[in-house]
Specification:
Length: 610
């Protein structure tokens, strides 16, 4: 039986079709083998990638240097364990609790608190020990939403605490996030007090962004675009301070366990050389996982170590106020430098007897300052009246903020006529108040910082400088060291009258009969004024303000010690030790040497402020 041509063509077509099908199947099989066997692992990983995630790159915080260019605040490396709530698998919380060494209920509580911030990295452990970091790293694949973040912590290199000067950092809270703009998330630190708060916008730097590909569990798989799309962080600016590390340490040691404050200034420009508030505290625990517990402990302490007594407490200034009263009377023509007043030991007014420290006899203004004659200034207070007292008090900055570059200052109280009238105090009642105000008592409240500025203004002949700690800022973005400008006011004071007051302050420390002749420093003439302020709640407060040398002064200060009695017996000796360390540092450096510089000198060039 023969095969027709049509049948032959059909058989041939079938063979070709079968060959084609086999070939196509072979190509698919080969491609499938290539994808599954040769590149299977790569494509499995790619298939798991669900999104590109932005991770904040936290900049290193700016460091701080003292007036000699020595680093006194630096950053040390640290690690934080964080969770991103919407990525967390709650069934893994027991494992997480075991790895970080926390009770399971505590971890669950942290998770619940973090839920409102579903897409943010919320810290679980700050400054995590390396063993915890290693344990988490080993189990990251089992802990979706948990990450390890490189961080920094503050390290303070001074032997002195300087806690109210530097201030502390803490984790941001909801109020910070609401009021400080979009920069912060719950995973951030922020300066809360002191320089850390005042210079937060400079110290914090600028965050960067890292783009990473993540899998379905939220775990980073690889950097997006090999990192070319990342935005680099810019480190925070460094602060170059006016602080003298030696004086800061000596001042803190001299204050000891007493409560009070010391502010030391350069009267030529308002730079702060030392800034002490006691009791104080150690800043390092604020950089540990137990910062919250430590803060709560300080907040409960009845000695109130968190309170900045240098610029937040308000005390009557006592006899340190007398130079202002003398200047007001001299400028208003109510007496001249030769006018005398007799002191029999007391002053009778309004049916009361106002006592003096002794019967000083006939005294002029210089002698009245030297021996701190109350009767002289009782009478002067009455003569000048409330309006002149307010006028000259305002001129010297009392009742106002000094503008210091440390966060948290209070303005104090300088009462005016209207202030008294609102309280129904007028006429003879107000006159009675003026007797007390003449010696720095009564309705008058000043801060030790204000008194240091006052002393510096008397020292330099009448220029009121804005007190400040930061001399220059090193900008890491521009690579420039930029000096900071501050204000000053030349007060409308007659140099002759200023000299009269200065003569009286010189006599206090250098002429027999002065109330602070125990303040002697080898080769240096000190000018000062003691004060003993009445305290209705206990023993009197001890004040001393001073400057030196008498001619061309380079240092001025205020020392205030709570409940310590006479200014000459407690505050004045503290000032003497600080002055001795300033003028004779070689006596102190061996035992109180500032830490060795660990700073790079690149930013601190010959252009640094002197």
């Amino acid at each position: 039986m023969s095969i027709t041509a049509n049948e032959d063509r059909t058989i041939l077509a079938g063979r070709i079709l079968r060959i084609a099908i086999v070939a196509i199947i072979g190509v698919f099989a080969a491609r499938l083998a290539y994808l599954q066997i040769i590149r299977g692992a790569e494509y499995l990983q790619r298939s798991e990638m669900q999104a590109i995630k932005q991770r904040a790159k936290i900049p290193s915080r700016g460091c701080m240097y003292d007036r000699n260019g020595t680093m006194i605040v630096r950053n040390d490396p640290a690690f934080s364990i964080t969770m991103t709530p919407h990525e967390v698998d709650t069934t893994t919380l027991p494992l997480l609790a075991r790895l970080v060494g926390m009770p399971l209920e505590k971890i669950r509580q942290l998770y619940r608190q973090a839920l409102p911030y579903r897409f943010q990295q919320v810290p679980i452990v700050r400054d995590a020990p390396l063993e915890i970091v290693a344990a988490i790293e080993e189990h990251l694949a089992e802990l979706p939403g948990i990450e390890i973040r490189a961080d920094v912590k503050r390290h303070y290199l001074l032997t002195a605490h300087a806690s109210h000067l530097f201030g502390y950092r803490a984790m941001v809270d909801e109020r910070d996030i609401a009021t400080k703009g979009d920069y912060y998330t719950l995973n951030d630190y922020i300066g809360k007090t002191g320089l850390e708060a005042a210079y937060e916008p400079f110290l914090r730097g600028r965050k960067g962004v890292q783009f990473v590909a993540v899998n379905a569990a939220g775990q980073p798989i690889e950097r997006f675009n090999n990192g070319r799309s990342d935005i680099e962080a810019i480190e925070g600016a460094d602060l170059y301070l006016s602080i003298d590390a030696l004086l800061q340490e000596v001042a803190e040691k001299q204050m000891g366990d007493d409560h009070g404050a010391i502010v030391v200034l350069d009267p030529r420009n308002g730079e702060v050389l030392a800034f002490v508030s006691k009791p104080d505290y150690d800043l390092h625990p604020f950089e540990t996982p137990k910062a919250g517990e430590y803060f709560a402990q300080l907040a409960r302490d009845p000695n109130k170590p968190l309170f900045n007594r240098a610029m937040q407490t308000i005390y009557p200034p006592g006899s340190t106020w007398k130079m202002l009263v003398a200047l007001a009377a001299l400028h208003e023509g109510l007496l001249d430098e030769h006018t005398t007043i007799h002191c029999p030991g007391s002053f009778a007014f309004g049916g009361r007897s106002f006592k003096c420290h002794g019967a000083h006899g006939t005294v002029d203004v210089r002698r009245a300052i030297q021996v701190s004659c109350n009767v002289f200034f009782y009478r002067l207070g009455l003569r000048i009246g409330i309006d002149n007292l307010y006028k000259y008090g305002t001129m010297f900055g009392f009742g106002q903020l000094t503008g210091i570059d440390i966060a948290g200052e209070r303005s104090g109280l300088l009462p005016s006529r209207k202030w008294f009238e609102r309280r129904g105090i007028t006429g003879s009642l107000l006159d009675g108040r003026m007797v007390n105000l003449g010696i720095g008592q009564g309705e008058l409240g000043v801060t030790p910082l204000q008194m240091a500025v006052y002393a510096a203004t008397l020292a330099n002949g009448g220029t009121l400088y804005q007190p400040h700690v930061v001399r220059a800022i090193y900008n890491k973005e521009t690579g420039r060291l930029e000096k900071v400008a501050y204000g000053s006011i030349k007060l409308p004071l007659d140099p002759r009258y200023v000299r009269v007051v200065q003569d009286g302050m010189y006599a206090v420390c250098n002429i027999p009969g002065g109330t602070a002749t125990n303040v002697r420093v080898d080769g240096v003439a000190v000018c000062g004024k003691t004060g003993t302020a009445q305290n209705p709640h206990g023993k009197d407060h001890s004040w001393f303000i001073c400057y030196a040398p008498a001619e061309n002064p380079t240092i001025a200060m205020c020392v205030m010690v709570e409940n310590a009695g006479f200014g000459a017996t407690r505050a004045a000796p503290i000032a003497r030790a600080i002055l001795d360390a300033y003028f004779h540092p070689e006596r102190y450096r061996d035992s109180t040497a500032a830490p060795g510089s660990m700073a790079s000198t690149a930013a601190w060039s010959s252009s640094r402020p002197q």
